[in-house]
Structures are given as C-alpha cells and as structure tokens.
Amino acid sequence: MMDRIARLKLVAPGQRTGVWTLLLLLCFPFVTLAQKLRFDNYSLPQGLSQSTVVSLLQDRQGFLWIGTEDGLNRFDGYTFRIFRKDPQDTLHSIGGNFVWTIVEAPDGRLWIGHEGGISCYNPTLDTFEAYRVGDGSATVRTLVLEPDGKGLWLGTSGQGIFHFDMATHVLTPYINGTKQNLGNNNILHIIRHGDGLLVGTRGGGLFLFSADKKFRRPSFAQKDSMLLTANDVWRIVPRKDHYWLGTQKGLVELDANLNLVRYVPLARDEQPTQRVSSLLFESDESVWVACYGGGLVHFNPLTGSYSFSNHAAVNASSLANDLVFSLLLDRSQNLWVGTWVGGMSKLRKGHDNFVNYSNDDIGTPSNFITAITSLPCGDHETLFIGAYGAGIRTATLDDIGNLSFKKYDPFPPALSKSVDLINSFYQGSTRLWIGTDHDGLVGIPLRAAGCLEKTNDIVHYDSKGDAHTLSNGTVKAAVEDKNGDLWVVTVGGGANKIITREKFGQPGSVIHYLNDEKDPASLSHNRVNTIFKDRDQNLWLATANGLNLVEGNGFKRFLQGKVITLFQSRNGRLYAGTEHGLYVNEATNGPFVFREEKLLAAQLINAIGEDAQGRLWITTNQGLFRFDPTAQAIIQFRSSDGLQSDEYNFNASTPTRTGHLAFGGVNGLTLLDPQRITLNPTKPAVVITSLKLDNKEVRVGPVKKDTLTLAKSLGETTALSFHYDQNYLTFEFAALDFTNPSKNVYAYMLEGLDNQWITTGATNRSATYTNLDPGTYTLRVKAANNDGVWDETGKALTLIIHPPWWETWYAYTFYVLVAALVLWLARNFVIQRERWKTELQLGHIEVQKLKELDDFKSKFFANISHEFRTPLSLILGPTERLLSESDGAPTQDLVTIRNNGKSLLNLVNQMLDLSRIEAGNLPLQVSEVDLAYYLKIFAEAFHSMAQQQHLDLTVNIPSEPIRGYADVSFLEKMVNNLLSNAIKYTAQGGKIMVTVTSKGGYIVLSVTDTGKGIAPDQLTRIFERFYRVHETSSVEGTGLGLALTRELVKTHKGEITVESTPGKGSTFTILLPVTKAFYSPAEITTAPGETESMQKEHHEMPSPAGNGSDPNQLHPLLLIIEDNLELRAFIRSAFTDRFRILDAADGEAGVKTAMSEIPDLIISDWMMPGMDGLEVCRVLKTSELTNHIPIILLTAKAGSDSRLQGLETGADEYLTKPFDLKELTIRANNLIEQRRLLRQKYSQNGRSLYKTVKATSADEKFLERLRTTVEQHLQNSRFGVEDLSREMGLSRVQLYRKITALTNQSANEFLRTYRLERAADLLRQGVGNISEVAFQVGFENPSYFTKTFREHFGKLPSEITKG
C-alpha cells in the first residue's frame, strides 16, 4: 500500500539528539498527502451500544470485544452482544459501563478495566466478577498481565498503580511520589519493561517503575522537560528492542535504554503536532497511528513518509470520525479503528485490491463509463475513457498504476458539439476508431491520439440514410478485416463494410448487412453489440439474437439469445459472453463448437480481460469474477470487496502495458493489478453463538425445574443432553472472520440424520431440527471466508436425545418379562379354554333350545299385545266417551268395562315390557331432568285412587329441583307399580308415604305403607314373576308388577330392597344412580334439558288455545286417515264440535285429500293396507305444498324403536293404541296452537316479509321462494294472485291455504304487505322520491300508494324519508 501513496522523507536524529535538534524537527515544514481509503463503519444503527470506542480486543476464540462509554460489546461479525452493569445482579454483571481497557489471561478469562474498578469475565460460565479499586472513584484505564499470569498491574486515573493478586484478590496500591511530579498519578498506559514497568501519565510524561516498586525518570526524560516530562504519554508500544510512544505532541521512538532515537510530530498543514492516542505495527514499514483529531495516519518508519485518512461527510465509506482513539489488527489482518463519538471503522485486508475512480476524479458529470482503451505514447501510456454525456476523458498511467485525468476533444468544432456519448474504441492499423452515439464513426491517427496531439487528419463516417453511408449512426464497434476494409456494427442498422479503397459516400463504398428472416445465411439480428477479429482473421459479430461468423457474403450462426462480448485468450480459446452465461470454443482447428462454462451459468457477461497467468477477469451484473479455466476455479468480488458497484457495462474494458486491467461500470472506473490482488488465506474459526429450544434462547445458568439451562457457554461445550420432548432445536453460528462477513459461506450436517452437508449463506446462519428421535447425534458446522477458503475442521457438538422412560433399557426388560408372563398365562388359558369348549359344546344344544323358546315367547307376547291393543282401544275409547257424556251418575256396567279394560291393558303392557327386557329390546334412554318434578307428578297422580280407598297418601318430595340423569318412562313404571301395590294391599284408613332424597349421586325413593306386611320367609320371592304372597290371595293381581319393577331398576343400574313387618306394613326402597358417569354415551339420548322440556309438556298437558272456538274465526280443517271404520268414526266424534272434518279409508286417498284440501291437521293410523301411515307421513312431509301440516301418527306398536321411526319420517306426534281420547284432543289442539303462533311470527308487526333470512326449515324455504317470485315481478302492477299461483306451480286454492297457514294472511294481503314493506325500505335508502318508489313496487297511483302506506304503517311515506 505504501507504493500507492506519496513518500515524504523525515530527518532522523542520531542516537543522541538534543533539545535543539528536536526544536529543529518541530519547525521543519512537512507536507502530507491525504490517503483515500474505504472503510466499513459500525455504530448504534448496526447494534453497537455506544459510539465512543476506547478499547478493542480479539479473544482466543476469535470474538471481537469493544469497550465503549456505555457497555462492553462482543461482536461476531453480524450481531453485537452487549454487557452492562445490572443493579439487580451485581454479583454476575460487569462492574462498570465505561470500559477503558481489556486484556485476556492465559486461561481465557477477560480482565476489564472500567470506572470504579475491574471485572473478570468467565467465558465458560458467561458471568462477571467485579472488584472495586481504591475508594471506588478512580477509573482503571490500563491493565498489564504478569508473565506468570497470576497477577495484574492496574493503571488508574488519579490513584496511581495497583497490583492485583488473582489468587487472593488482594489489591496493593503504589503512588507516584517522585519529586519531579509529586501529584501526578493519572496513569494513561503501562507496559512491562524488564522486571519493571514503563508508565505513561497524563501531563507527567514517562516514568519507569522499577522492580523495587519505586518510580523514577528515564535518563533522557531527566534531561528534557518538553517531550517526556510535560507531555501526555497515551500509548507505549515495544518494537524490536525499541519503544514507540504515542504522546500529546506526536510520535517518539526510544531505544532499549530509553534514549531518544527520533521524534515525529506528524505535522500537517497548520498543525505542527498530532495527539497520538494509539499506534499499531502492521510490519516494519507500516505503522497505523491513531490521531485524536487528526484521523488515521499510515506511517512508514523506514522512509519516514506518512499519509492521513480522514472523515468526509459526503462519503459514507470514509473514516467514521477524526477523533481516533484505539486500534486493533485482527487475525485476518483487518484494521479496526475506534473513535470518540463516531463508532468504529474497519479497513479490510486487501482494501487496496481495487482502485476506483468516480466522476469527481475523472471530471465528468456522470459515473457511467461506456468505453475504455489504452494507447502508448513513447514510454508512457494513455487511457481513453468514454463517459455518458461527457465525451472523451484521458488518463496518464504511471508505472505504479496512478491515474491523472483530463479532457480530450480531438473532434472538429461542428462534431465536437454533438459527440457526448462514446460507445467504443478500436485500434486499427493506423487510426483509433471511435464509435459514437448517433454521430457515426470517427478515426484519429494513432500517434496523435496516444500523445493527445491536435490534428486535422480526422476521418468521419456517418449515416445519411442512404445505401452509400452507414446504415445507422449509433456505432457499437468497428474492426479492420484482412483486406484492410473497415467493418462497422450498429444498433438497429446491422453491419456495414466500408470499402476503404473507394470514396465514402459514393456507390460501392459501403455494403450493408441486415437480417432477412427468409434467409438463414443473413445476419441473425440488426442490433449488433460488438464485432471481433480472431487470430485467424475470422470476423465474429455478437448480436441480440446469437453469434454470427462471416463466411463469404453471408453469415454462419451460433448460440441463441443475446451475445454481448467476445474475447480470445492467449491459448487461442474464443469466449462469447452472453446474457445467460459464458461459452467457449476450445478448438483451434476444425469446426467451431461452443460449450458452456458451468461455473458462470446464468451470469450476464459484460466484458472479459486476461492476466499473465491466463486467468480471466469477467465483469457481470453481480460483480467481478476471477475465473481460472484450467483449474476450473472461480472467485467472485462484489462492491463489498471494494468494487465501484456490482454492475458493469458492455465491452467497457482494456488491458494496459503495466499489466493492469481497467473496467467501466455504472458508478465509475475500476483499476486493478491482477498480480497484487490479495486474497484472504485465513481459515475462519466457527463458533456456535446461540441455542434455542422451542424458539426461546437457552443461556448459561443454574439448573431450574422445567427450564433448560447450560452448565457452561456453547463455546466451551462439547455435548448437550435433552429430554425426549426437548427436540425443537435451533443453533445459530458465525465464522469469526471479519474481512467480509456477508460473503462467508456455511455448511452444516447433523450426523445421524443428514446424509450430506447443507450449505447456507450469511443471512441464514442457523440450523433448525424438529422432532428428533431419541439417540445420539453430532452437529458439525464449517465455514468458508469471503474468498472461499474453508475451515474443514469446523465445530462439532454432540447432541443426546434421551428416550422417554417407556423406551429405556429397563422398560424393555420389563416388557420382556411381562410378555413371557403373558405367554405363560396364554398357554394355560388355551388349555383351560379347550376344557371349557368341551363343556360348552355339551350344553350348546340345551342353550339353543332355550333361546329359541325365549325368542318364541317374546314374539308371542309382542304379537298378542298388538292384537289386544286395537280392540282395547275400541272398548276403552267409546266407554270413556259414554262416561263423559252421561248426564247423571255413570252406570256401573260402564265403570266395570273401563276398569277391567284398563287392567287388561296394564297386564298386556307389563307382559310386553318383561319380554322386551329379556330380549334386550327395551334399552335404557337417560337424559338430564328434574327428578323431583317427575316423581312428584307420578306420585300425586295416585291421590284420587287413594281417596277412593280411604287411604292417606303423603308425598314427601323436596320442592327444590333434583337434577340428574334418568329414564323418565322407567321412573313412571316403577312408581306406578309400587304405589299400585301399596294401595292394593293397604286396608281402609291406612297410610302410604312416598319419600325422595338425594345422596351422593344417587336418589333414594321409598314407598312405605301400613298394610298387611310380608312374612320374612316370603320376602326373598316377592320379586319372582307370578309369585303372590299367600296372605294376599284374596286381592286381585298377577304377580308381575314387582318382577317388572325389579327388572326396570336393574336395567337402570339401581337396587331395590324391601323391609316388612307382618301386621305393620312394608317399605320398598329404590336406590338409583343419577350422575352422567354411570351411563354410556349410547344410553344418553338427548342434550340436557331437551328431553325434560318435551316430557314436561307431555305430562302437564296444557289446555288448548286458539283452537277455532272463536265464532268469528273459521274452524280448523282436520283430516282423519284410518282403515278401521269404527275407530275412524270414534275419532271423528271427538273433534266434531271444534273442527271441520275430512276422512279417508286408506293412505292413497288420504294423500290425495291432503294435497287438494290442505287441511290444518292430519290424524293417521300406521298400519293400513296399501300405503301405510309411515309412507303417508313421508310423502306429505317432503311435498312443499303439505310439509307444513302437522301429523299425529296412531299405532299399536309401543316400542321406542317404532316411536323413533315414526318421528324420523316427520310425524309431529306419536300415540300408542289404546290411546287416551283426552290426550289425543289435547295434542291436536297444541299442534293447532303451534301453527297459529308460527303464523303470528310471520305476520307480526315490525317483521319485514320481503327481507330474506337464512332458510333453515321447509316453511322458510317456501317463503323464500315466494319472496323471490314476488320480487321478480314487483314493478308489474298487474301481477296478482292468479299470476303468483301460476309462477309457484300451485292452484289458487292451494296457494291461498298455504300462505294463510304460514302467514295468517290471504294471498292478496301478502302481495300488498310485501310491496309496502319493500317501498318503506327503498324510502329509507333514499333510492328515489315517493312517486318513483311507488312505481317501483307496482303502484300505478301515488295517491293510492300514500293512502295504503299510511293504513299499514300509521305514518306517511314522507315521514319515513325524513327519518
């Protein structure tokens, strides 16, 4: 680098130099030159904790440590980790934030000097230990380790020197008490000197602290009071038995005996001296000097020359600040410069690989360099540079590559004014040919051009738009062929061949070559980027669509796409640079065949140069590549490596006689010497910087429950263990090579999982692994530096994922033992099973016969009950009606018929229930209900029966709800049987008590009577089927009630017990579980509350409402479908006074009647010839015309399966024969009332009929279709009911009854209401005035519209508009 700057010799004094010599040196006028260096700067925006950097250190791992005024920073090239004093954790945090000095001990610990004392950083534990120095007010500004590493020497500001014993932590103070400077104990720097120390002070100069722990002045300092007694000595640097001092007044060199060798004040302009804060030897001839206020100085001790680098506000790559305070040269030879309030700057190794010249250097208005060439003039060499909009600039190139620029205008006055863009230069045999933009081709004699002489011998070939001049004035390149003719290629005008022996502009002087799509031998494209003549005199044209070789009067085509540049290497290889890569023809003889260079695939090639080693230098839009064709090796340089930018221009390049290469780009000119390119040979050390578990960083710390911590830092860790569920891991890493971290490349592999290395860039320096199976893995990470040098050793970290306990070796041992035991048990079971099998086979025939008998019995009971139910209905139904219609007391015969009929029915039901329980056809169906409510209803229903027998029935059931899960039908039968028996077997005047309590998830139901009681020997048999106590033989009964009750309780997972004393009475107690946990999901039928509400409605049987009894209303229409004539007449007689009645004898007739008459209610039998009740229900419920009609289904099938089947087809109610006539009428009235409420829902005030809602039922779907139909014809005032019924596909009567059934409005009322509500909404939206809205909704007369609107809404349309 010193070769690139001006040299300045300094007079060096002899070994002994006096004061007068020093004064002479101080007054000597030295001229220094500023040096243009390119820095990378770091401050707060990049993550630095504070911008004053006073100390720098690179530790043995490679981390960079930065001491600032506000915290200690650790830098890995990408991120700063900041350490500050933590008042909440003084035991483990740094003791002060203003960090002045950092040293590393042999054991890897860092010792930090800061305000108030020192701190020791333990990299293993990632913690600090702080020690106060003196009274805690002094700042430790310098530290020196003892040779044995057991102690530290501390230099403080104001309190002298201290010695710190690392083992005992004892601090010993030493105060400077010399007569020369009694009060000066402000220490700036100390270093070891033999057995003592050299001490630099502020204002007191240099002291020697001897082995006897006393201060004295060096001999030279005793003689001189200017340099070393009244001076600030900021830095003392030993170098080859000499000492260099950075002082307030410049540099001072001392010999081994501390005698003055020379003094370098670093004078600059009007500043006679510079304050030197630090200095750093790069080599014997290269010293970096930190000048506080003067910037960075590069000093050559051998020649005495130096140069300054300073901050420039307009240049972001200049020095961060001129207040330079600290320096560091890292292991990759990058220079780090710490400044006061400016952050820090980095000068990269190889920073002088490339020299860039911008428009400020060249003297052009633009940085866009379009063309370059080089011409000799005697022993000198001149570069010709074409810049956008600036014509030609020239630069004189000296032997060491320095350039000096000036403008060159060889053109005649007329041409000079228009030529401002140069496309190319070509050195012909006698002339320099200059391709211009729009002004054709200009030729200047080579001698005159090379020496920048003025000449009138200028040739100008331009375009006149005819066949005898150039085809286009924008010339991209020119070349002379072997015949001396000149070929000129243009943009859009193809190629031109100028016959030089003919006069330009005359016929035959120019031949044009243009593209002809019909001629494959023509030029492939009229835009030609360049033309090139190879060593065999072949002419090659690079066009926007392929490469063309001149053959006779035509062209031979090669390649596809845009070809930009052409180049032939020294070994004869022809290279073609294209928009998508580099192609080469290696054959020197024979046919031309181009192959792709894979290493440059997809790169846009702008220009190519070659160095002395045969390596190609290739510019692209992604920087500069050095490509070795022989070794097939490539290195990429980017703007971050010092290039003018990453983008270069087409064919803007040239070699020089000195071996330099020049390239033109979009941001200036780049000049390089291929032989002096310095690459980075340092293998980068790789460190794992962070571990994250489940995206949370894991840090060093004590062991915590449920929290993963590290026992020591990742840099000191070789293995990590994780639980089986701690397997979402992210590792972050960094290569500690700071030359150009953005170009570092990483590769990682998890051995045990990955089969190959995974490569990643600097922007994604992490590896994430999820769902790792238990096992042992090794994470390996390696890195390459910015120039592709790999550290193959890298970093290895063992990861152990422990298995869960059930996958451990002892678990598997247990599994084996259990498996062996299971096999042994299985073998014994097989043997025993064979025995059982034999026994079972013997009893199989008997069991099968019993099963067949049981099945026959169940079927028999089911069939006989079905046959009994219909005649019982015809017996009990008319009997009940006759009893209700009798004016006086009912006849005893009717009462006898009713009572015995009900007894027979009860007997049939009990027999059927028992058979169904045995066959498993009476499943338990529980739901959450209020148990107290139902039990009270069931019990209190027996009050009348008890009163008839003159018994006192007491029901002791809590009034508060008892919620639980139960089958209400089971409860009803249990209560009925127990109370029936109690009343039956208790004499007149006796008492019966029903008690219900709740106890721990159970209910306890007790029925106590004062009857005859049961003998103890008969208690065990009373629950047997058909068994009757001997003492009660005179009382009628079948002996089925208690048997059925026990089966019901057992099915309900409960228990029934009895306590009895003969002559005093009996107590039956039922214990039932009522919590959900006792029942399987299949036994829980309905969501909580739904069954209860349905069953409450059934048992409360509300009075009918809205049943048409109002004489002003039309009675509802009832359709009865029943094949039994007597039953049909019986049902008809019950509804004559409240309904209009239609009937049908079978299902087909019933469906036809329902379709035509649209009744309000249908009562249908299930079992009928032809179409049964289920099919009737299905047909009517799936028809849009009749799906709103409620249907009551009557059947003799009493099972829950039959009931569910009927309800699933759409039946609204389901009654089992024989039915209670009163219950039938109540259910019918309830359904009529529900339909009335539904009509009210659609006709209530405030509900808009025209607004659509989500159609969730068949009724709403019908209304939605109705609304849509009306909306489509809304503006048609003549659209009436007839039209609506036709559009809906219904008769007028059907439409009328359907709309009335759903909305309680006639069809006309519905139409009028819809139009009015639509109008109101349009008025609210402000769609139009009242008349316009009236016409939009089908009213022809606005006055009539206003009248009707007011009648409907109670206000005028104008009031809605205002609102």
TrEMBL record:
Catalytic reactions of this protein: ATP + protein L-histidine = ADP + protein N-phospho-L-histidine
Keyword Transcription regulation tagged: yes
Residues in HTH araC/xylS-type domain copies: 1264-1363
Protein name: histidine kinase
Keyword tags: ATP-binding, DNA-binding, Kinase, Nucleotide-binding, Phosphoprotein, Transcription, Transcription regulation, Transferase, Two-component regulatory system
Gene Ontology molecular function: ATP binding; DNA-binding transcription factor activity; phosphorelay sensor kinase activity; sequence-specific DNA binding
Species whose genome carries this gene: Chryseolinea serpens
One Pfam family per UniProt: HATPase_c
